[in-house]
Specification:
By secondary structure, this protein is an alpha+beta fold. About 65% of the residues lie in helices and about 10% in strands. A 4-stranded antiparallel beta sheet has the order 2-3-1-4, covered by helices on one side. α7 crosses α11. The longest helix is centred in the C-terminal third of the chain and has 33 residues. It is elongated.
Length: about 325
């Protein structure tokens, strides 16, 4: 049996080293770089007279001054493009200069004009503007707040469920608290990582990123409950063993299962990051980081929290912080 519990303080140190830089980056101004979904912008719907490659269209918008453009394919050679606000000022009209929208449409017409239209000098028919609308950030902000509320409700439900499911073991509420703390651990890891990536590489977060974070939270809770359930079973089956031995035995039993399950998911996500295209790359990267953190936390963080609570280390640490003498350690069999 592997003595995983023995190195619990090292696991906590690893978590702190990985999470604290990201949390500091989150607290500093510009913690996360918001994408178009969280800022005002424009939605441009265009239809081409011939088939156009999505990657070529994205490069065209980058060359026209909008590298942030998010492009979604529709049907009949139609694309929906989300961009930052266009510069349509009265100074452009007063100076006789075309607006930015007109310049973009002209640039698209010139780049994707069929050879027949070039010869006939009718490239203005190569692309047709179907709509041009304003994007408000209010909807995205509402999604964020509803997501936060959903996570809060989920945390309360997890506490109640685990308190009921583990009612046959002493202090069942600890399992719920440890699962929620592991959930927060993983969410902070993902948010902090994207804050650092945003500062270093300009990676932005969008509405799909929220879905990815919620998916990570669900995966984290699932993996943690599997480990906790094995601890509960062994605690009932081996009442004479110390809690440290029960946790070590349970982790040894579930370690291969957790690693194999996570590895299959991670291999799929790596393939999506490499070959899935630019549109989903950031959300898949969030899943990749979060599921890696969730696998770690279910084994080396959540379970270790149960151990330090059982050994009274958490209570003694809090007593020392408040300047009081440490209490005697009590370990349940």
């Amino acid at each position: 049996m592997i003595d995983i519990v023995r190195h619990r303080h090292f696991y906590f140190l690893v978590s702190a080293i990985l999470i604290i830089p990201g949390v500091i980056s989150l607290l500093l101004p510009g913690g996360l770089r918001p994408g178009i979904d969280f800022t005002s912008g424009r939605i441009l719907t265009v239809r081409f007279s011939q088939a156009v490659d999505q990657g070529a269209l994205r490069q065209a918008f980058a060359d026209l001054g909008h590298p942030e453009a998010v492009i979604q394919r529709s049907d009949n050679n139609t694309y929906i493009v989300r961009t930052r606000p266009f510069e349509q000022t009265q100074a452009d009209a007063a100076g006789g200069q075309p607006s930015e929208l007109e310049r973009v449409m002209q640039g698209l017409s010139d780049r994707f004009c069929p050879d027949a239209d070039k010869q006939a000098k009718t490239c203005d028919k190569a692309v047709e503007r179907l709509s041009f609308d304003h994007v408000s950030p209010l909807i995205a902000s509402e999604i964020v707040w509803k997501s936060v509320a959903a996570v809060g409700v989920a945390c309360a439900a997890i506490l109640l469920y685990l308190w009921w499911a583990f009612r046959k073991v002493p202090l069942p509420w600890r399992y719920g608290r440890a699962a929620v703390l592991a959930l927060i651990h993983d969410a902070l890891f993902v948010l902090g990582a994207f804050s650092l990536l945003g500062r270093a590489f300009g990676i932005e977060v969008d509405a799909i990123f929220i879905v990815a974070v919620l998916t990570v939270i669900g995966f984290s809770v699932h993996d943690t409950i599997v480990v906790f359930d094995r601890i509960r079973e062994n605690f009932v089956r081996h009442p004479g063993d110390t809690f440290d031995d029960v946790v070590n035995h349970s982790l040894t039993q579930t370690l291969a299962r957790s690693l194999n399950t996570s590895l299959t998911v991670l291999l799929t996500l790596v393939a999506l990051v490499l070959f899935g295209g630019v549109t989903i790359r950031n959300s898949v990267l969030a899943l990749l980081i979060g599921i890696t953190a969730g696998t770690y936390s279910s084994i080396f963080f959540a379970s270790m929290l149960l151990v330090v609570w059982e050994r009274g280390e958490m209570r003694n640490w809090w007593a020392r912080v408040r300047g009081r003498p440490a209490l005697a350690r009590q370990i349940s069999a």
